[in-house]
Amino acid sequence: MTDFISRLRLLCVLIIIICLFFLYRSSYFRKLYYPYHQRQIIEKNAREFRVDPLLVAAVIHTESKFDARAVSRKGALGLMQIMPPTAQWIAQQLQMDTLTKEEILEPEINIRLGTWYLAYLTREFNGQLDLVLAAYNGGPGQVKRWLAGGVWSGRYADLAEIPFTETREFLVRARTAYTQYQKLYR
Fold first, then answer.
1. How would you label 129-157 residue by residue, b for 16+ Cβ within 10 Å and e otherwise?
2. Pick from 6-20, 85-99, 137-151, 153-167: least confident
3. Domain spans of the chain?
4. What residues are labeled active site?
5. Which of 57, 54, 74 is nearest to 66 (CA)?
6. What is the DSSP letter of 82?
7. Is 72 helix (H, G, I), strand (E, B) or coil?
8. Cα(57)–Cα(174) distance, integer angstroms
């Protein structure tokens, strides 16, 4: 009888593992982990600034997991985790008034600023996704210095060369999220 119960338990565990495997592989489960909140706002701004909306969603997922009230230890704000000085600079480029912290946290404004910034970085780095993402996190000046100084080749295969751990990790997470968003929502 004990042998029968052991086999039955093993069978139940195997069935549970198989079910979890298929659940994990399902798009339903992955969409729970990679949601596409704020879709209308993202797509409106992505159209205006000619950025892939799924890239915007991937950056938001990586930066804040779609938490509009997110504030980092360094002071980055909102869905797209924009530093206040960067937000003010972008606002000037868009001919907007000076923004308060609360305004930067507003999803419509935050997504507009972040999407414009992704478009700007895409132009600055000739559409090279890895450079754009590294610059979004580490700053465009920093990335240009790494490239000019031979510190980083700019290739994903060489991401271990990136001096900032946070930027290396961001690049990996953002590329992974972007791939998932493309699979789930394209």
1. bbbbbbbbbbbbebbeebeeeeebebeee
2. 6-20
3. 1-33, 37-185
4. 63
5. 57
6. B
7. coil
8. 10
Distance CA 177, CA 60 (A): 10
- Tell me the per-residue pLDDT of 10-58, one tens digit each, with 9 for 90 and over: 777 877 777 566 656 668 888 999 999 999 999 999 999 999 999 999 9
Please provide residue 77's backbone torsions phi and psi, each rounded to the nearest 5 degrees. -120, 140
Q: Can you read off the two tokens belonging to residue 59?
A: 């950056």
Q: How far is the CA of 94 from the CAs of 45, 55, 59, 87, in angstroms?
A: 13, 21, 21, 10
Which of the following CATH numbers is that of domain 37-185: 3.40.980.10, 1.10.530.10, 1.10.10.60, 3.30.450.40? Answer: 1.10.530.10
Note whether 130 and 175 are within 8 A (CB): yes
Question: For the chain, what is the total number of helices (H) and then of strands (E)?
Answer: 10, 0
Q: Which two tokens stand for residue 67?
A: 């938490």
- Residue carrying the six token digits 């980083």: 152
Check: CB of residue 174 under 8 Å from CB of residue 130.
Answer: no
Which residues have CB under 8 Å from 102's CB, separation 6+? Answer: none
Q: What is the pLDDT of residue 81?
A: 98
Dihedral (CA of 60, 144, 122, 126) sign: negative
**At residue 95, what is the residue type?**
Q
